[in-house]
């Protein structure tokens, strides 16, 4: 009875859940044992738009020849089926110039989806899928500090790991109370720019990345930690997304990722790992900020590794930094939640062994280490 009461409280206000154990998550890694990955079609690109608590995102990254990294993102969130909001985020990193990051986060007013749920549109911003389902146009004049007009066209098949890219939460697999899904276009051609008050950052002719993510439950109930890397080189693109559930679901590690080249998926699946090989720590947040990392992809006749120093961090984001102090203290005390995101952009060498043949290529990695609870 006490666990039932705790669960009801958690459903309403997001407090800590009871300990259900690893049997209460049906991880996508189990699907991947039978079907390592599934290529995406246009039908897979619809927004889900759930009626219950969820966070759904379309996120795009762009890397310029000058070393700049751009990000554009729409976040659609629903709190308890009571309040829905949308926002448009854009960010530019200047890792080679050591300049301050440009960060814009704005409410997307008047938001709506088209009838088929392929396109998001709001006042002064939008993400529109092309008729053939092979490209997105991202536009925003919501914030004059960063005006966005960029088109990304996939150069390689998109994929989800397993049959549908989704892990389900809850002891009853037929009636889950939560879910987590990721879908990727790892390698895209980019056209367009982001215009700032200091000038235009042109991303035309460079590589881009797209991810569609859905957290169909309270985010801190689904995961306590995250590791993410998006690697781009002249020949290869690699992606890995790993999360660890809270103890309520057995601290289960779920990892999805893949490596592609133009027109071809070399590997995609769930037999991957992300490890922090050196810890430098962050006394301000108290989290064990990594100094080096090793990302490994392992398939049948295929192995790849991306390892080395993460370098100087680009940013450290206090996710609850804008929350009033007393609310922040209450949430941290009630849930043990103190979310921080550490971001990096090192130049690393991807090492691939395929059917006994070894290849190496240097590129740029964008990586995040996220600690929540």
What this model shows, in words?
Ceramide-binding protein that may transfer ceramides from the endoplasmic reticulum membrane to the cis-Golgi network membrane, and is thereby required for the biosynthesis of complex sphingolipids. With about 375 residues, this protein is mainly beta. Helices cover about 10% and strands about 55% of the residues. It has a single domain, classed as AttH-like domain (AttH-like fold, Beta Barrel). The protein contains 4 helices and 27 strands. It is globular. The relative contact order is 0.15. The N terminus is likely disordered.
- Give the oligomeric state of the chains in this entry, treating copies of one chain as homo and distinct chains as hetero: single chain
What does the average pLDDT come to? 90
Number of helices: 4
Number of strands: 27
Supply Rg: 20 Å
- Identify the CATH architecture: Beta Barrel
Beta fraction of the residues? over 45%
> Helix content range of the residues, please?
under 10%
Write the layout of secondary structure elements.
Layout: H1 2-13, E1 25-26, H2 28-34, E2 37-39, E3 54-63, E4 69-79, E5 83-94, E6 99-107, E7 112-113, E8 120-122, E9 125-129, E10 135-140, E11 146-154, E12 159-161, E13 166-169, E14 178-196, E15 199-202, E16 207-215, H3 219-222, E17 225-232, E18 236-244, E19 253-261, E20 264-269, E21 272-279, E22 290-299, E23 302-309, E24 315-318, H4 325-335, E25 340-344, E26 347-354, E27 357-371
Antiparallel strand pairs: 1-13, 2-12, 3-4, 3-16, 4-5, 5-6, 7-8, 8-9, 9-10, 10-11, 11-14, 13-14, 14-15, 14-16, 17-18, 17-27, 18-19, 19-20, 21-22, 22-23, 23-26, 24-25, 25-27, 26-27
Subcellular location: Cytoplasm; Endoplasmic reticulum membrane; Golgi apparatus, cis-Golgi network membrane; Nucleus
Function: Ceramide-binding protein that may transfer ceramides from the endoplasmic reticulum membrane to the cis-Golgi network membrane, and is thereby required for the biosynthesis of complex sphingolipids.
Pfam families: Svf1, Svf1_C
């Amino acid at each position: 009875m006490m666990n039932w009461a705790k669960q009801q409280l958690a459903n309403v206000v997001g407090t800590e859940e009871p300990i259900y154990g690893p049997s209460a998550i049906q991880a996508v890694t189990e699907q991947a044992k039978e079907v390592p990955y599934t290529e995406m079609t246009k039908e897979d690109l619809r927004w889900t738009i759930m009626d219950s608590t969820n966070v759904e995102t379309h996120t795009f990254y762009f890397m310029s020849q000058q070393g700049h990294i751009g990000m554009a993102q729409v976040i659609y969130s629903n709190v308890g089926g009571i309040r829905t909001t949308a926002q448009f985020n854009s960010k530019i990193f200047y890792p080679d110039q050591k300049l301050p990051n440009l960060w814009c986060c704005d409410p997307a007013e008047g938001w709506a989806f088209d009838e088929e749920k392929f396109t998001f549109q709001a006042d002064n911003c939008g993400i529109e899928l092309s008729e053939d389902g092979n490209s997105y146009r991202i536009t925003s004049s919501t914030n004059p500090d960063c005006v966005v007009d960029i088109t990304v066209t996939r150069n390689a098949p998109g994929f989800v790991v397993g049959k549908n890219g989704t892990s389900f939460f809850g002891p009853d697999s037929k009636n889950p109370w939560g879910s987590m899904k990721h879908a990727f276009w790892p390698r895209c051609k980019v056209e367009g720019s982001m215009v700032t008050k200091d000038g235009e950052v042109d991303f035309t002719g460079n590589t881009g990345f797209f991810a569609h993510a859905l957290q169909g439950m309270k985010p801190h109930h689904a995961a306590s930690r995250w590791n993410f890397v998006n690697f781009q080189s002249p020949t290869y693109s690699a992606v890995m997304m790993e999360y660890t559930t809270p103890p309520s679901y057995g601290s289960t590690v779920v990892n999805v990722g893949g490596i592609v080249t133009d027109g071809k998926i070399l590997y995609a699946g769930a037999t991957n790992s992300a490890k922090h090989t050196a810890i430098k720590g962050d006394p301000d947040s108290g989290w064990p900020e990594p100094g080096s990392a090793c990302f490994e992809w392992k398939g049948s006749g295929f192995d790849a590794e991306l390892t080395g120093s993460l370098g100087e961090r680009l940013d450290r984001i206090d996710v609850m930094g804008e929350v009033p102090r007393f609310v922040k203290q209450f949430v941290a005390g009630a849930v043990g939640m103190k979310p921080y995101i550490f971001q990096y952009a090192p130049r690393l060498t991807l090492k691939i062994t395929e059917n006994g043949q070894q290849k190496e290529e240097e590129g740029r990695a964008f990586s995040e280490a996220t600690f929540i609870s």
